[in-house]
Design brief:
six-stranded antiparallel beta sheet; single chain; 241 residues; 3 helices; alpha+beta; 29% strand
Length: 241
């Protein structure tokens, strides 16, 4: 699977991840450090513009009490596309939106550094109400590739990763299923899950007022309404026999 890329330090990359935003205190020993957070990825102006554009598309949608897989509650969701992406429910023709999405994709591409350029699926916007919840799950491996990433808007949150068995885990493995990894996701940040974090770990949002320790200090993270822009790459089907 994809691993960290040395090209992250080249001049083509405008930002580096801040590892203080990933708490490994309780991580399993075999965890591969495959989750990163870029705090302050967006400026306040960029964040405001993104919220404004996405809110236009969401205003006629009602908050749903739950999803068919019981993972998320009190939310609304919409697929969003840039003008060069076809076949989407909604296209945002704002140049700034397209530039922001492309900048995020360029940074994610440079971080995972696959041999070939990634093909991206249209982004999804998920609007989670203040009283909503996102429980532990692994995104389907049947419809997308090796990256799950997101821009966080409107409020801060803590994401927890836990080892999880599933299609990409050997049931006979001696891998420990104890422990967890926490990600602090302040608004305007970008996170990326790949490697073990994408396939072998579930992710969830902790309840409001959970505590994250950063730079030796405990901070209480109050989560209000949370808007996120989700990035996934397309599944590459191998021709190997």
């Amino acid at each position: 699977r994809y691993g960290p890329c040395r090209c992250l330090t080249t001049t083509s990359c405008t930002q580096n991840p801040d590892y203080a935003y990933v708490n490994l205190t309780n991580a399993p020993l075999n965890y591969d450090n495959s989750a990163v957070v870029y705090p302050g990825f967006l400026s306040e102006e960029e964040g405001h513009s993104l919220v404004k554009e996405v809110s236009k598309r969401l205003k006629r949608r009602r908050f749903e009490d739950g999803h068919w897989d019981s993972v998320i509650s009190k939310y609304r969701e919409i697929e969003l596309a840039t003008p060069d992406e076809v076949g989407s429910d909604s296209t945002i023709d704002s140049p700034q939106y397209a530039q922001t999405i492309q900048r995020a994709r360029d940074l994610l591409q440079s971080y995972v550094c696959p041999e070939n350029p990634l093909t991206w699926l249209p982004c999804h916007a998920i609007d989670l109400s203040k009283n909503g919840s996102l429980d532990a799950h692994v995104d389907s491996v049947k419809f997308s590739g090796g990256i799950v990433a997101g821009i966080s808007l409107l409020s801060d949150s803590i994401m927890r990763l836990r080892p999880a068995k599933g299609e990409w885990i050997d049931d006979n493995s001696d891998e420990s299923l104890s422990g967890h990894v926490d990600l602090y996701l302040p608004k305007l940040s970008l996170y990326c899950l790949h490697g073990m974090s994408r396939f072998h770990y579930s992710h969830e949002l902790l309840p409001s007022d959970s505590v994250y320790q950063i730079h030796g200090k405990d901070i209480q993270v109050t989560r209000g309404r949370r808007l996120s822009i989700i990035f996934r790459d397309a599944l590459v089907v191998s021709n190997d026999v």
